[in-house]
Design brief:
The chain has a single domain (3-287), classed as Rossmann fold, CATH 3.40.50.1820. It is 44% helix and 15% strand. It has 14 helices and eight strands. It has helices spanning 3-10, 52-57, 83-97, 109-121, 144-149, 154-160, 163-173, 180-191, 199-202, 205-211, 213-222, 240-249, 268-271, 273-287; strands at residues 13-17, 20-27, 34-38, 61-65, 102-106, 125-131, 227-231, 254-257. Strands 1-2-4-3-5-6-7-8 form an eight-stranded mixed β-sheet, sandwiched between helices. Strand 1 (13-17) and strand 2 (20-27) form a beta hairpin.
Length: 288
Amino acid sequence: MARALDEWLAGGTRSTVLGHTIFHRQDGPADGPPVTLLHGFPTSSYDWAGIVPRLVEAGYRVTTFDFLGLGASAKPRGYDYRLTEQADITEELWRRLGIDRTALVAHDYGVSVAQELLARDADRIVAMTWLNGGLYPDLHRPVLMQRLLHGRLGPLLGRLGSERSFRAVMGQIMGRAVGDEELSAMWATITLDDGKLVQHRLLSYIDERRIHARRWQDALETYPGPSQFIWGPADPISGAHVLVRLRDRLPGAAFTVLDTPPAVGHYPQVEAPDEVGAALVTFLTGAQ
């Protein structure tokens, strides 16, 4: 594994949460305002490694963790992975860590977990930041590999997955170039504990988003606190086409569109950590 990933993992803890081993970290001053970062599929909390130091420097207490089935958390085989259970785990982790109210930042897979958390108790979220993700199922455009993994060939394709194929997909969905070491580290988080073998099961999130579409859309659009969108418009999955609806439905939200050429794609926090970090700190400071 890349040195940076080794250091990220060394700075965290593995705890049993609701019967599963969950990797988590806390960074920053113990008395700082809490911020929780939720990562996406198929990677891990390491996606936030370039953002956490910026939040810590601004005085925040930052909580990151790997969802069940991803990163350094447990990856049970033959398991029925559910976004609603990921929300259960988030809430239990907050309880363990003594986090009552927190700002929440979510990307990709994590946006659905965040929507579920808002639907349960929006009052505990003091501010909400969204990065590219499937907030509206009808606008979600999964790439071919995701569609294939979600189909009957999913178990086989998962076994055959390679770093080369991963890089090819990243090249399709990212707008700005990311270094080889960074991509290798992201791939390493997928392959920890044979994680390739559970990816097809995690993709049930596509169906779960449809099941909860109305509830989660209402949670997004009626959230009473300050909202921010940091968006990569060059993302073919959840890019510029989603911004059109977001601006229409949430006109009072703050928008940071990372469209300076080359425009950012699906992973803003990895492709443009300086811009994302600056926008996030500015927003959270104003939201306090």
